[in-house]
Each structure stands twice: as C-alpha cells, then as structure tokens.
Amino acid sequence: MIFAAIPKIWKILDKRTVAILGAPQTGKTALIRLLRDVNAPDSGLQAAASGEDRGRFMVEIKGKTVDFAVPREVPSMNGLNVGEWKDAFDDAEHVWYLFRADLVARGDAGTTQMVKTHLALFKKWIDAQPGSAPKILLVGTWADEHPDRSLSLSQVAKQVEDTDVIKFGSAQLGGAPVVVGSLVTSKDADRLLKGIKSRLQ
User: Are 71 and 23 in contact (CB under 8 A)?
Assistant: First the structure.
C-alpha cells in the first residue's frame, strides 16, 4: 500500500524539526517506521520493537527533509525522560504527542493522569519560552482496542475528544488539534496519516 499522505506531510514540514513524544507503547516507533517508508504491506503492519528509532535523525522523501527527535524512554517514569523531552520540545517547530486513545476513552485513571501531567508540562514549557512555541498535535493511537467493538474509529475519536483531559489539555495548549486512529493495519494507518496531514495545514 502506498501512503499518499506522507509526501504531502513532508512538503508541509520540509526543513522543520518534529519532536515525537509519548509514553511507552503508544505507537511512536511504528509511526516513525511508517513515515520512513512510503510503502507498507497491504496485509498489515509488523509490530515495532521497543527502543528502535530513538534519538535525533533526519528523514528525506522526494527531496524534502524533516528532522525528528524521539527521546529515549525511562521505564519507571512512564517513558518520561524529562531532560530529553524538554530538549526535544524546545528545539522543535512541531510536537506530536502520542497517547493511548482506547485507555483515555474508557477513563483509565493511570493513563488519564499521565496524559494530564504531560500536557501540563508542555504548557509550563511553552509559558517559559521567550519566542514562538511549537505547534502541538495530540495523536490518539490504539483506537481499535476500545472495549466497545461496535463503535467505529470516528465514534471512538469523538469520545476521546470529548473527555475532560483532552478537551482541557487541547485548550490550555492554544487549541492543539487532535487526531485519533490506529496503526494496526495499513488501511487504519493510511487514515491516521491523512488525519495528521489535514491538521498540519
């Protein structure tokens, strides 16, 4: 499958820096692997090994380059490596924050508190920056794992967007846009990438 949205994302982000932040198991590595490979198998996506694609690196597609910063994770801190997260955040023009949409939608207390803490940290860093702040995009993944299998991904997305933690977090970050989806299949990933592209404009 060819992800047509990826070259369009690169056109928007050409010569810019993107920080990808989030707790472990939120899809950061899978997303990076997709962005590096415009093509993906139609049969579905392979699970990415934890710890791959960490650090700072540049990806080029069709002559357009984007610098990525993906901090290392600290297992005992829900992945929050504060020093590296702040460095990546401060250097970025775009910040993509990944979170588990299924757990937020079902009101999981630990996940909700963690997301609230992370977004409050972003607000603190923005307030401390003398110049322009990065553009923040909230990316909910694992929407396919919602306990109510009768809901479509768009219904799960609406449920997630209506939660207090996401509504308030988005508002305090200047109306940060939200995109919710899944990376479990190529079709789902294509939909999520299109959503990301549409919210970058």
Answer: no
Range 38-48 burial, b when 16+ CB lie within 10 A, else e: bebeeeebeeb
Quick: pLDDT tens for 7-32: 899 899 999 999 999 999 999 988 98
Q: How far is the C-alpha of 11 from the C-alpha of 38, rounded, in Å?
A: 14
* Residue pointed to by tokens 């401060």: 90
**CA 29 to each of CA 69, 117, 175: distance values in angstroms, whole numbers, following the listed order:** 12, 22, 26
The token pair that represents 36 in the structure block: 């590096």
pTM: 0.89
pLDDT tops 90 at residue 49: no
Block residue for tokens 């369009």: 8
